[in-house]
Design brief:
mainly alpha, two-stranded antiparallel sheet, 3% strand, 196 residues, single chain
Length: 196
């Protein structure tokens, strides 16, 4: 029971090829490896949503080659036995959005005092930005009410991708890029965002 705008925001932000790859997106891994070599640190990850489910459900958070190999094998098995929608459902129910904020239901209530079915596209894009580093971003963005230019651009990119994918209209896009992310709407104004 979730608004499609929230689902689209998270998939476009976290793993835009989720419905196309077989669980591991090797091109992204190679790109990430090259960027990390250039930066001389582990600045970029390349885990798909399926890999994140495997890591969070079956494995530890340690960063070793053995754990990564186990992740590849288990991801391949996960993709063979479950549909993409089933994998996505698990992910949406276990993803961390901040300290002790797990799953889209908790995130929708915590950040916007509403149910996931009422989250609109800009709110979904905002929540998606919490996922890569939920604890750090929770304090940097949410607690400080500080949406820096860098994070604003990332949210705008997700909204632009939603426009290009025809999940939102031109008019919605123009309205959403001016969205005030820290204003919680009153319960009387909570209506699901319309999508094409």
């Amino acid at each position: 029971d979730i608004n499609r705008a929230l689902v689209h925001s998270i998939v476009l932000s976290e793993d835009s090829t989720f419905f196309e790859h077989g669980g591991v997106y090797f091109e992204a891994i190679i790109d990430s490896f090259a960027e990390n070599l250039k930066e001389r640190r582990a600045a970029y990850g390349a885990s798909t949503i399926s890999q994140q489910v495997v890591k969070n459900v079956f494995l530890t958070q340690e960063k070793t080659l053995i754990r990564k190999l186990k992740e590849f094998v288990l991801t391949w098995q996960l993709e063979r036995h479950f549909s993409k929608n089933e994998i996505l459902e698990v992910y949406l129910n276990i993803a961390e959005f901040g300290p002790d904020v797990f799953g889209v239901n908790a995130a929708a209530h915590h950040f916007y005092d509403t149910a996931p079915k009422f989250i609109n596209a800009p709110q979904g894009a905002f929540l998606a930005q919490m996922l890569p580093s939920p604890r750090r971003r929770y304090y940097a963005i949410w607690k400080n009410r500080n949406l820096s230019r860098k994070y604003r651009k990332r949210i705008d990119r997700v909204l632009r991708d939603m426009l290009y994918g025809e999940f939102i209209t031109d008019d919605q896009y123009r309205q959403f890029i001016r969205y005030r992310y820290f204003d919680i709407p009153s319960s009387s104004s909570r209506m699901p965002a319309r999508s094409r």
